[in-house]
Amino acid sequence: MAGRHRGGAADAPAHRRAGLGGRHRAHARAHARRRNRLASLAELLALAVVGIGGALLLRSFVVQAFYIPSGSMEHTLHGCEGCSDNDRVLVDRTRYHWHDLSRGDIVVFSTDGTPYARESDEKDVIKRVIGLPGETVACCDATGRVTVDGRGIDEPYVWEGTSPFSAVEVPKGTVWLMGDHRSASEDSRFVGPIPIGNIVGKAVARFWPPSRVGLLH
């Protein structure tokens, strides 16, 4: 009497073999999808890390955003304590690695080691360059203008004029900074010249609020 034959999958009916093959293919496709999802997540994570690292690098070495807290630079820059529409500016931190400071530049500087640090909680202040090292700054000439080395300078950005002050020679390694809103600015007239080493960079553009977006001059 012939023994009972126990066949494997190869001996199964065709429809059963097709079912087994279909399940294997479905399992393989599901596994591939999971693997692709994991690969996509890994790529997104890598991109996020690169993006965050790039942003930190950009902020630390190239461009940094600053908030304008006061009205000392009106009307060029708007700011007031408690206001919700204060300007925000972008500062080029690399500008003075390649270029010299120029009169009229709007700069942000650190208050560390300056009289500002003793009188204010502000860590960074924004003003305009008026006097360069070795120049003599005073106010005013016959038309009420600030003078540099005895010559009046044109300042179309000034709001409310400048009160007279005695001539000051700007020491080597420092700059004379003033706010555009002269009657509301605590600047070099009160705290003296600022070390060039304290300058963070040049303010190049206003990016907030949207109605005031534009380059700074």
Please, could you describe this protein's structure?
The chain is of the alpha+beta class. It folds into two domains: 48 residues; 153 residues, Ribbon (Umud Fragment, subunit A). 28% of the residues lie in helices and 26% in strands. The strands form two sheets. Strands 1, 2, 3, 4, 9, 10, 11 and 12 form an eight-stranded antiparallel sheet that branches. A four-stranded antiparallel sheet has the order 7-6-5-8, with no helix packed on it. A hairpin with a 2-residue loop joins strand 6 and strand 7. It is elongated. The termini are far apart.
Offer a concise description of the structure.
The protein contains 4 helices and 12 strands, in the order αββαβαββββββαβββ. It has helices at residues 14-61, 95-98, 115-119, 188-191, and strands spanning 63-67, 88-92, 106-110, 124-131, 136-139, 146-148, 151-152, 165-169, 174-178, 194-195, 199-208, 214-215.
Chart the SSEs and their pairings.
Blueprint: H1 14-61, E1 63-67, E2 88-92, H2 95-98, E3 106-110, H3 115-119, E4 124-131, E5 136-139, E6 146-148, E7 151-152, E8 165-169, E9 174-178, H4 188-191, E10 194-195, E11 199-208, E12 214-215
Antiparallel strand pairs: 1-2, 2-11, 3-4, 3-11, 4-9, 5-6, 5-8, 6-7, 9-10, 11-12
